[in-house]
Structure formats: C-alpha cells, structure tokens
Amino acid sequence: MAQIYSLALYETRDPHAAEDITEGVFLKALSSLPRFREQGEGEESTFKVWLYAIARNVIANERRRDRRHPQDPIELALGLRAPDDPAAAAETRLEAERALKAVMELPSERKQALILRFVNELSAREIGELMGKSEGAVRVLIHRALVSVRRRLEP
Amino acid sequence: MTRTSENAIELDHAIDTILRGPAGPAGRESEGELAATARLLRDVLPRLHPRFSFEEHLAARLAAARRLRHEPLLAPEPTPIEPRLLARSTAEPTEAAADPTAPEHRLLGLVAGGAIASGVSIAGAAIVVWRRSRSGGFF
User: Fold this and answer.
1) How far, in Å, are B1, B45, B53, B138 from residue A14 at the CA level?
2) From residue B99, how far is each of A27, B25, B86 by CA, in Å?
3) Which of A12, A26, B9, B41 is the most exposed place for a label (fewest CB within 10 A)?
C-alpha cells in the first residue's frame, strides 16, 4: 500500500489526495479482481503491473476531478528525519532537496519513469507495460531523465 | 543498436545493481556519473507512508467491501464447496473458465480479495513495528 501511496503523493504532492487515490485504487482492485488474469509467475507476475495500471488511471481521474493546491509533503518528510549528526544531516538534506527538486521539475513522463524505477523499484519492462512503451524505450527515457537530473545538479 | 541504446542498457543494469545493493555511497568513486546520480536518487528519494489511521480505515473498508461482495454467496451454501471446486480446478478447462461469474472465479476473487485486504493489514502491522523501532522517520 505504501508504494501506491508514494506514487500518488509524488504525482499530486497532496497527502489528502494521495490517500483518496490509494483508497480508490484498492477498492477498484478488489472489485476488478474477477477480471484479472495472471499471465506470469514469480518476478514475471503481472499482478503488480495490473495494480499500478489501476493507480495510474485513478491518479489521472483525480487530476481531472480535483484541482486542490499542492503542498510540500515530500519536503516535510525530509524535514522529519532524525538529525543524529546535525552537520551531516544538513548536508544530506541539502543534497536531497536539490535532487528532489531536479526530479520534480522534469517533464511529466521522465519524472514518472524515475519515480517508478527508484521509489517503486519497478523494472524497465514493468514500466514499459504500464506506459505503453517498449522496454528499450523506457531504458532510454530513464537514461535521458538521469542526464537531465545530473545537469541540474551540477554547480 | 544506437550508442544511446547501448548506454541505456548499461545504465539499466547498473541501476538494477544499485537498487539491490546496500544503502549508502559505497562505490561512488568507481562508477560513472549517471550511475552515481542513480545511487543518489536511490538514497534520497523518500518512500512515503500514509498515516496509520488511514491504513486502518482502508483495511476496514476493504474488509467490508469484501464481505458485501461475497457473504451472500457463501452463507447459504448447504454443502462443502471447496472439494468440488478444487476437483474441478484440476480438470480440463470448461466453458466456466471464460465466465467471470462462475464459482471458480468467485472463489479466486474471494481468495485474492482476502489477500489484498489482509495484505493491507499485514502492511499496517509491519509499519507499526517499524515505527516503534526507530525514533524518527517519514510520517
């Protein structure tokens, strides 16, 4: 559930909207289960991609329906980290904020690919199935997204 | 295959290794700039968790939705249903296999629905343990 919530929060930047989306995804998944057909086993299971596909649809619907003002929950989350070493924590926080800002400013498709790869830890194949792209196209998309992030992080 | 595609494949393998590896900056000096950026994102992009009260609320809603969907089916069943369904599940595929309202599919939905609902509960319990084991963290 945390993975779906994470994806929704990155997309909406609104904790309340992310909760609404998460609830909608799982209720939709429960009602749609009779139509789900497993087409793989183990790491090849299609269940995860099916669930994320529902999430993408619910997120898209939520965006059309609701235009609440985004907050900064991610920055808030970073601020809640326990500062064992204040100096190191400050440096880490600065680095994290710059990286996060660089990701959030990417074009939508690149940002989504990076979030799915690094936060949700989906493979390029799984992301491709979700986004309607080939595995190779997703690899190139992620490569270009990382080049963009790298350039934005350069001093 | 273009140079970009080759680089993208190489980077994808590096990302797989980074995602499977331990957290922290180890290896940064020996890897390429993009792999180092990938490692940075792995380390700093937060995995966010919803409020525990929301998890409890959602688990209750899913359990209620599951009951609403399946109680009328299971409650009045006078004879044991499992042996018949289990026996049929090992038989040759029938027309029922294409019918989502067939008992086999409803049972599958029940089991998988239970998995979703209990998965939420288990996730909630795991998060409680995790939160109690540390003094700070996300949400």
Assistant:
1) 42, 16, 17, 15
2) 22, 53, 17
3) B9
A-proximal residues of B, 80-139, CB under 8 Å: 100-101, 105-106, 108-109, 112-113, 116-117, 119-120, 123-124, 127, 134-139
Kindly state the helix (H) or strand (E) to which residue A94 belongs, with its residue range. helix A86-104
> How does pLDDT run across B60-115, given as a tens digit for each residue?
988 888 888 766 555 454 444 444 444 444 333 444 444 444 444 444 454 455 55
For the entire predicted model, the pTM comes to: 0.66
Q: Which CATH class is domain A2-71?
A: mainly alpha
Best CATH choice for the domain A83-153 from the list 3.40.50.300, 3.30.559.10, 3.30.1440.10, 1.10.10.10: 1.10.10.10
CATH 1.10.10.10 range(s) for chain A read 83-153
Contact A118, B44 (CB under 8 A): no
